[in-house]
Specification:
The chain contains 28 helices and 22 strands. The chain is of the alpha/beta class and 796 residues long. Strands 13-12-11-10-9-8-21-22 form an 8-stranded mixed sheet. A 7-stranded mixed sheet has the order 14-15-16-17-18-19-20. The N and C termini lie far apart (65 Å).
């Protein structure tokens, strides 16, 4: 292909799909507005420049106008209300209604649609949404429609505090929540309950009837798969069975077939399009009914981002067919994105929206080019019986395979970025499962109609199809076929991935060039998943932000990695696992357990499950407390040695050495804090003293080590408790930096004011994870260079 032909193909793509390019421009503007906090005047200037440029270049002017619209909408959503009483740590009492919404985290978090605010003189109007974070000691049984009165302290949702971590601020802002309220004890009072609206009540009853009909006529496994596949099953009667089924689909990389997404909308749309083609005289009726079905399905499934995108795109496509206009699928995709993003710009950061958009675009753009090139290199059929069979199935197999490859390559960077997981074998799993899911959709709808009428004649067919899906998912969820932990893609790979999806369609068809371009993209993605980060140029300590807990990564300049504690356990992906993946750490030479309290070892089971670990170093006597048992069992299952260490032991890891200094006192004490392992990590001239939760009594016993306690960095004991880190201890250690690991707004008020006063009196700089997120300390030539993941707080 000549350069002129290639340029002509690319130019044609740009000119024929204006909506697609407008949508990409809006997306880029929203991303820039969020990443750099671009103020509103800057987007007004962008619009002004676009109006000036419009006289010389219509395309550039229009793109600048759309960029201004997207950036302005995002900036407005990110701007909190300018009201004097809405500030950090301010007390507030509100009255309003609990709303149903998908929340950033599972747990005791709900959304309040406020209507009134209490003032010293009475109640005044206060519109807006507020997130409620409810401590464990506050009884909570919130239901949508509850009218409540809440009181507490205002909080600003924090951004991501460590690499690869979620941004709570973004997740709450996406739901229109600029402020959180930490509810006080006895600060949540139920006043009454609002009846649901007519539309919500109708579709709620329909949803309940669908779930009940499948549960009544199908086995528990088939019922969960059918319900999840059709409308989503958020409250299954057997949560354990649901978790096992969902885990099989997730670990096989086929979870998109189980959850409600654009796949189901596409299947519904395909049924009505096919009916319109077969019944040509009644095609407008079929397409009109199809449009109404899409709207009904949207409300029935609560309108998630993939369903919204697919429903809007399908509606645009149906309107185009009704007007006898050829609808370009990329243009429809761009128009659907514009319709969704202009009123809700932060919806761009919804994972479902990203996966749905990229999967559809990759199918539309990449799959046809791959299909034609694959058919050109596949052998043709022949006159023999086997050749005739091959002739019949040659094209369908090529279409199915290239579609799976295209969709996988389109969504893979997003999956790696958000979940740090990938499965290349899911391409093979999707081939039979997509075919089965199409039949399952039709069979489930027909079965549901029969079940609602009391004639569940198709129950055996649904059982067989759902069982087949589950069996294939279970097969491909097992190692080495299942998903594996990978590193997130580097920034430079994103534009190359975009180009790799678009490029094959610009190349000459019927040759191996598109296949070669796609193979190159796949190879780049595969390598980027597995290449670890280079070693730091100096001994480095990273205090990972795990909330109220400890997790420190010690990285030597020789590439050694030692993890000290792993923070508390959490629901879902663990912060330590996410941070280690984002830092591209491939292996841990050792994990040091300071003591078996849950805020230090709660996340260790996930670390052992996701990373090769050389050894677990501990001082846990006997069977240990209950929190230690899962760690012990996980280490034994993974074949990781459990090494008992004591004061005086020294272990070498490459050029790094870990010297254990304590505890030196009695080993039969009941308080596990008093048995905290105290260790000194050193490499070259860099020295870091690790103290766990050692109280002042243990520190005083350790003073006998004398000058051996000297360190560049002191990990302050017990998260900055007042019972640790006395002045005599600070004089003995004489650190250049004091590192405090504690949670933001923790209920223990760590770090204690008395401790901070002692550190300030000793003129020791302080680095705190509650203020700056993950803390990185690089020790170079006797100096400690401190950097935080977040900007430092203003001087108070």
């Amino acid at each position: 292909m000549s350069l002129a032909e290639f340029s002509e193909r690319a130019d044609e793509w740009f000119r024929r799909r204006p909506c697609f390019w407008w949508a990409l421009t809006v997306m880029a503007a929203i991303a820039v507005s969020w990443a750099w906090r671009v103020p509103l005047p800057a987007w007004g200037l962008c619009l002004l420049i676009g109006m000036v440029v419009l006289r010389f270049s219509r395309i550039t002017g229009v793109l600048l106008a759309f960029a201004s619209a997207g950036g302005t909408a995002a900036a407005l959503r990110m701007t909190p209300p300018l009201e004097a009483h809405l500030r950090e740590n301010a007390p507030i009492t509100l009255s309003g209604v609990i709303r149903r919404d998908r929340l950033p985290e599972h747990g005791r978090r709900v959304i309040l649609e406020a209507a009134w605010r209490r003032t010293p003189t009475g109640w005044t109007e206060q519109a807006g949404r507020f997130g409620l974070t409810v401590p464990e000691e506050v009884p909570l049984e919130a239901r949508p429609g509850d009218v409540v009165e809440v009181s507490g302290l205002l909080r600003v949702p924090p951004p991501a505090t460590y690499p690869g971590g979620p941004s709570q601020r973004l997740e709450w802002l996406r739901r229109g929540v600029p402020f959180l309220i930490r509810v006080r004890p006895r600060g949540y009072v139920l006043v009454g309950r609002l009846p649901p609206s007519g539309v919500a009540a109708f579709f709620g009853r329909c949803r309940t009837a669908v779930l009940a009909a499948n549960r009544r006529t199908l086995s528990p496994t088939a019922a969960h798969i059918a319900n999840d596949f059709l409308i989503g099953d958020e409250d299954p009667p057997d949560p354990g069975l649901a978790r096992r089924i969902d885990s099989a689909f997730r670990d096989s990389g086929t979870i998109h077939l189980l959850v409600v997404s654009g796949t189901q909308v596409s299947l519904v749309l395909a049924l009505f399009l096919l009916a319109g083609q077969r019944l040509h005289r009644f095609r407008f009726l079929c397409w009109g009914v199809g449009g109404l079905a899409l709207v009904a399905y949207f409300f029935l499934t609560d309108g998630s981002a993939p369903v919204s995108r697919a429903a809007v795109m399908g509606s645009v496509f149906l309107i185009g067919r009704a007007l006898q206009r050829e609808a370009d699928l990329e243009n429809c995709l761009g128009l659907a994105a514009l319709i969704l993003l202009i009123p809700d710009p932060l919806g761009l950061f919804d994972i479902g929206f990203q996966l749905s958009f990229l999967a559809v675009w990759s199918l539309v753009r990449l799959s046809p080019a791959l299909e034609r090139s694959l058919l050109a290199v596949l052998p043709p059929g022949g006159a023999s019986p086997h050749g005739k069979v091959w002739t019949v199935f040659r094209r369908p197999l090529a279409v199915a395979f290239t579609g799976c490859v295209a969709a996988h390559l389109g969504v893979l960077p997003v999956l790696e970025h958000h979940f740090h997981q990938a499965s290349w074998f899911s391409i093979l799993a999707n081939l039979p499962m997509i075919a089965i899911s199409g039949i399952l959709m039709a069979a489930s709808i027909a079965h549901l109609i029969g079940a609602l009428c009391g004639l569940p004649l198709l129950a055996p067919a649904v059982e067989l199809l759902s069982g087949s899906l589950h069996a294939i998912a279970a097969l491909f969820s097992q190692p080495p076929l299942g998903t594996a932990g990978v590193f997130p893609p580097p920034p430079w790979l994103w534009p190359l991935a975009f180009l790799g999806i678009a490029l094959p369609s610009w190349l000459k068809q019927g040759t191996r060039a598109p296949l070669l371009a796609t193979s190159t993209l796949a190879g780049m993605l595969f390598l980027s998943e597995r290449v670890p980060a280079p070693s730091p140029d100096a001994p480095t300590v990273r205090a990972l932000d795990v909330g109220q807990g400890d997790a420190l990564l010690l990285q030597g300049a020789d590439g050694s990695n030692v993890l000290v504690d792993a923070g508390p356990g959490v629901f879902g992906p663990h912060p330590v696992v996410r941070a280690l993946r984002a830092l591209r750490v491939k292996r841990l030479d050792a994990v040091v357990v300071s003591h078996p309290h849950a805020d230090h070892i709660g996340g260790l089971t996930q670390v052992l499950a996701h990373f090769p670990v050389g050894a677990v170093l501990h001082d846990v006597a006997g069977a240990g407390p209950e929190a230690w048992w899962p760690v012990r069992d996980a280490a034994l299952r993974r074949g990781v040695p459990l090494v008992d260490v004591a004061a005086g032991d020294q272990l070498q890891f490459g050029a790094s050495t870990v010297s254990f200094l304590g505890p030196l006192g009695r080993t039969d004490v009941d308080d596990l804090n008093e048995r905290s392992l105290v260790a000194l990590w050193h490499q070259g001239g860099a020295r870091v003293l690790l103290t766990g939760d050692a109280p002042a009594t243990e520190e005083s016993e350790l003073l006998r080590w004398g000058s051996n306690l000297r360190a560049d960095v002191l990990k302050v004991a017990h998260h900055g408790s007042r019972e640790s880190t006395e002045s005599s201890w600070l004089r003995a250690v004489s650190p250049k930096v004091a590192l405090i690991s504690c949670g933001r707004y923790n209920r223990y008020d760590h770090p204690a004011p008395e401790l901070l006063e002692r550190l300030q009196a000793a003129r020791i700089p302080i680095a705190r994870t509650d203020e700056r997120g993950m803390i990185t300390l690089a020790i170079k030539q006797g100096r400690v260079h401190v950097s935080g993941y977040l900007q430092p707080p203003p001087v108070r």
